[in-house]
Amino acid sequence: MEIRAGEWRKFSASRPKYTAIFLFLVVSAVFFLQRNINVLKFQNKTTPTTPVPNRQHINCSHHQLSPEERRLLDSIAWPETPRLPVPISLNTTSDPAHSTFTILPVRAGGQWHVGDELEALIQIGDFQGRPKQYGGDLVIARLHDRTLSAGVVGRVVDHLNGSYTAVFPLLWEGRAQVEVMFIHPSEAITVLHRIDREHPDRIQFKSIFRSGSVSETSVCNICLPPDQPLCNYTDLHTGEPWFCYKPRNLSCNTRMTHSKGGFKPNLMAKEETLFLRGVNMKVFIHASGSNITVLPKEQGQPEVKSSTVKPEPAGYYYQGAWQALGGAAVRQFNNASSISQCLTDKVVHLYGDSTMRQWFEYFNTVLPDLKEYNFRNNRRTGPFMAVDIARNILVKYRFHSPPVVTGAIFLTNELRYVANELDNIAGGSNAVVAISVWAHFGAFPIEVYIRRLQSIRRAVLQLLNRAPDTLVVIRTGNLRALTLGIALTNSDWYSLQRDKVLRAMFSGLNVRVVDAWDMVLAHHLPHSLHPQLPIIKNMIDVLLSYICPPKK
Prior knowledge:
Layout: H1 5-14, H2 19-45, H3 67-75, E1 94-103, E2 112-113, E3 117-126, E4 138-145, E5 150-158, E6 163-169, E7 174-184, H4 186-198, E8 203-211, E9 214-221, E10 230-232, E11 243-245, E12 259-263, E13 283-285, E14 291-295, E15 315-318, E16 321-324, H5 336-343, E17 347-352, H6 354-366, E18 371-372, E19 384-388, E20 393-399, H7 418-423, E21 431-436, H8 446-466, E22 471-475, H9 484-490, H10 492-506, E23 512-514, H11 516-521, H12 533-547
Parallel strand pairs: 2-14, 17-20, 17-21, 21-22, 22-23
Antiparallel strand pairs: 1-3, 3-6, 4-5, 4-7, 5-6, 7-13, 7-14, 8-9, 8-12, 9-11, 10-11, 15-16, 18-19, 19-20
Helix pairs in contact: 8-10
């Protein structure tokens, strides 16, 4: 159900005295009506008492892989590592302290100019100082200058022999410094891949079932061994599975809450030594001579040469502002007035995880006339709604359905599948849809994430078929700070694999992308699941530039 800006203006013109009161009542009524309708839809789309087929092992896929899914899996295949000894020994594993990188000489002329490419050769050694003979390490790189607040991502090529090449476009004049970060040794990625396949239930979830004064707590997950009766909450529209162990004395229909439970590392002897912060996880590789000077571009030279390394960076920072490469120009929205003007007569639907909730919080903080009505909802998962009555702006946020790794959510019917929500909006030229779904899927096999994206893609296609002028924006995942526990459930390697799948899934569709991966990696601020305000501001500038592109 949509709130139409034209109807607001028509009433405002005839009844200016009561506009504010009337609109608040209308918005409240629509919110509660939509909430109740969707609760009924949620109840109709789930079959909590459907029997679950007996399975001899945990299966998170719940379906045979399609040719598309197999192609996606092949496209993200990672180099294999030789079998590890048990218990593990660090001696032969990758060690950033015994690794180095070297800036390769300019091929001709002996100088770098804007528009050129710079290459750095990275050589990985083990803890005994010997060069590694195989690839598979996760290494990232950027070129930056703090004085200019400039930065760009380098694309890293694995030569599968212990050496890597980082390639950077040169986009600004002056100084630039190469920075190479070692995220994981190849041996750690082998472990991550193993536990991903063998232990898809390593994060536990739980729900409270309640009827009157009787309550029970039960374990829930996408992946549950059928060693006792299960409640099946598979969504009938999307086919997304979710299960809970059936309470002993209560029915499946009495489920009330959702929350994260425990966590099982599932590591073998000494495998934790592959995930040591400051030793072999998220460590800079040092090298002498990492600084260069970039001269103005040569006469007749293009601004940026086409790179042989794909994909090319989405953009770069200069003086703290994100500049797009090969896409739409990015405007700077530096005050509430310019943002409000862009959003006037718009309905903005924000769906996904807490990295999308940051966008809602940004609008709610920066725009003083945007008033939030959260109706005592969960501060982490919402749903939230904010309205600027004078400018006919409506901003809405809703979390995606499980898996949701968070504290207690007291009404499970407030968690909706993004695909189902998209099916319930009309779309149109006044509608903006932004989606971010990635952060809660790291602890599950990639097939689970592929299935979720497939249902969202189908809903996006249906939305664009019925309302082609709807703006749909996809936010990618980003790097984050890592500890042992986070690495085993939401490592940057897991995020990178899902990032590749996300881009492939929406390639060719009439959607726009906010490249959070590049925007976090290219910035000097530390990696964080929830990027800091300067990065969020630049993301919002990209979003608003899609809504209100600069005039040619």
